[in-house]
Automatic annotation (TrEMBL):
GO terms for biological process: ATP synthesis coupled electron transport; electron transport coupled proton transport. One of its GO terms (molecular function) is NADH dehydrogenase (ubiquinone) activity. The gene is nad4. It is a multi-pass membrane protein. It comes from Lessonia spicata. It catalyses: a ubiquinone + NADH + 5 H(+)(in) = a ubiquinol + NAD(+) + 4 H(+)(out). Core subunit of the mitochondrial membrane respiratory chain NADH dehydrogenase (Complex I) that is believed to belong to the minimal assembly required for catalysis. Complex I functions in the transfer of electrons from NADH to the respiratory chain. The immediate electron acceptor for the enzyme is believed to be ubiquinone. GO terms for cellular component: mitochondrial membrane. NCBIfam families: NDH_I_M. It comes from the Eukaryota. Belongs to the complex I subunit 4 family. This is NADH-ubiquinone oxidoreductase chain 4. The keyword GTP-binding does not apply. Residues 129-411 form the NADH:quinone oxidoreductase/Mrp antiporter transmembrane domain. The chain crosses the membrane at residues 6-24, 31-50, 70-97, 109-125, 131-152, 164-186, 206-228, 235-256, 262-286, 298-320, 326-347, 359-382, 402-424, 444-465.
Length: 482
């Protein structure tokens, strides 16, 4: 099934929502859920039709845009971007299903924002032109800004929305300068053309740093991580799921696709810098997570720790390290999304995210606590879950690159056990503080795909590695890294 069909479905959904009367709330919800579900099913055909033996881009869509300037809109997927596309198409219908009882005003704007966000994110992950990548990379800020600013849960939502917008926008201005220089130097912004052009060592270093400023804010890395906990706390549940499950992956995807792909010499040069910054981020945010009293803020800091661990894997310069980083990114998309949905279930019932107000839920909500326990174990890397595969291989590759870095990176598993188990213990056990109903069938069906995906990736990861192996092997320049 061609890639363009996914975008056609989403455009159809956006146009359809515009013409559905605002009073028909249920019809709009059903229509949006149907469209996003159809997009996910269509993305499965991309996987089924994907040729694993070649590192080349497949399902190419090439549209003339500015032929005089040699700039075209080119879309395609390879072994790296395929699973990010599928993660995106999986998370969005689950978000819409989770927010089924969302009863604030302007439901139409809410649904259009989510469909527009999915449309733009798919363009980001499939784009093969540097200029268009920048445009869509920044355009995704607009619908998320609206979701946080309009549908946030507290008065600080405007401040959080502006903080999210400005942090990520200002960092990307340096990338725009780099893209303009690349176009003037190479005469094209086509990624496939640029990948065979060799920039000088000096050019690579400053261009790498220009791109770093943009991607580091999205990962996020220290010290530009401040916007993330604030945005998570103020965003509605579905907004937090998109932030953690997909938007943070834009940073790691950008490093993987452009920093490593176009500037390999600079990537080697700055590896100690990335290791130092990432290790500091892992330890600092893990310790910060332990002392949090707000459920969302706690999970937000754990997301920063996990994504900084991914950065270490990306810059080990080995096939195992890169594949483990991609797998861990996908795993984080499943697990962190589920944890934010779990917090959303609690917030829907009692409208509080303060940890001390909860306790003894295992007596009144056994199904909920069972699912919470599973994703808590997955978050700290229990064998049999997707996080274990990713973290174990990340640490193996880190040990090969730098044993000291591996030692400090491994503390994330110890600290992760600390904040994850302590959080679960306080909410699930102890005296009964609140009495509520267990998960409904709709809520259970939101968690089921994430639970099955986490298990499947943990038990049979080779099906994912086999798809990405040719692309990753082609990306790693062994003579440079060694």
């Amino acid at each position: 099934m061609p890639l363009s069909f996914l975008f056609f479905l989403l455009l159809l959904g956006i146009v359809g929502l515009i013409f559905i009367p605002s009073s028909q709330t249920l019809v709009m919800r059903q229509f949006a859920l149907g469209i996003t579900s159809a997009v996910f099913v269509s993305s499965l055909f991309l996987w089924l039709g994907f040729d694993q033996s070649t590192p080349k881009f497949q399902f190419i869509v090439d549209r003339l845009w500015l032929p005089i300037a040699n700039i075209n809109l080119i879309l395609g997927v390879d072994g790296i971007s395929l699973f990010f596309v599928m993660l995106t198409t999986l998370i969005f219908p689950l978000c819409l299903l989770a927010s089924w009882s969302f009863n604030k005003e302007k439901v139409k704007t809410y649904l259009i924002s989510f469909l527009g966000m999915e449309f733009i994110l798919l363009l980001v992950f499939t784009n093969l032109d540097l200029l268009f990548f920048y445009i869509f990379f920044e355009a995704v800020l607009i619908p998320m800004f609206l979701v946080i600013g309009i549908y946030g849960s507290r008065e600080r939502k405007i401040r959080a929305a502006y903080m999210f917008f400005l942090y990520t926008l200002l960092g990307s201005l340096f990338m725009l300068i780099g893209i303009i220089y690349i176009y003037l130097f190479a005469g094209s912004t086509n990624y496939e053309i640029l990948s065979v052009i060799t920039f000088s060592s000096y050019d690579q270093k400053w261009l790498w740093f220009a791109f770093f400023a943009s991607f580091a804010a999205k990962v996020p890395m220290l010290p530009v991580h401040i916007w993330l906990p604030e945005a998570h706390v103020e965003a509605p549940t579905a907004g937090s799921v998109i932030l953690a499950g997909i938007l943070l992956k834009l940073g790691s995807y950008g490093f993987l696709r452009f920093s490593l792909g176009l500037f390999p010499l600079a990537s080697v040069y700055f590896t100690p810098f990335i290791f130092s910054l990432s290790l500091l981020g892992v330890v600092y945010t893990s310790l910060t997570a332990i002392r949090q009293t707000d459920l969302k803020r706690l999970i937000a800091y754990t997301s920063v720790a996990h994504m900084n661990l991914v950065m270490i894997g990306l810059f080990t310069g080995t096939v195992i390290g890169l594949e483990a980083a991609i797998l861990q990114s996908l795993s984080h998309g499943f697990v962190s999304s589920a944890l934010f949905l779990i917090i959303g279930v609690l917030y829907d019932r009692w409208h509080s995210r303060v940890v001390k107000y909860y306790g003894g839920l295992t007596h009144t909500m056994p199904i909920f606590v069972t699912i919470f326990l599973f994703f808590t174990m997955a978050n700290l890397g229990l064998p049999g879950t997707s996080s274990f595969i990713g973290e174990f291989l990340l640490l193996v590759s880190a040990f090969e690159a730098n044993s000291t870095a591996c030692f400090f990176a491994a503390t994330s598993m110890i600290l992760g056990g600390g904040y994850s188990l302590w959080l679960f213990n306080r909410i699930a056990y102890g005296n009964i503080k609140l009495i509520g109903v267990d998960l409904s069938f709709r809520e259970f069906m939101v968690f089921l795909p994430l639970l099955l995906s986490t298990l499947f990736m943990g038990i049979y990861p080779n099906i994912f590695f086999s798809v990405m192996h040719a692309t990753v092997s082609n990306l790693v320049w062994v003579d440079l890294w060694l």
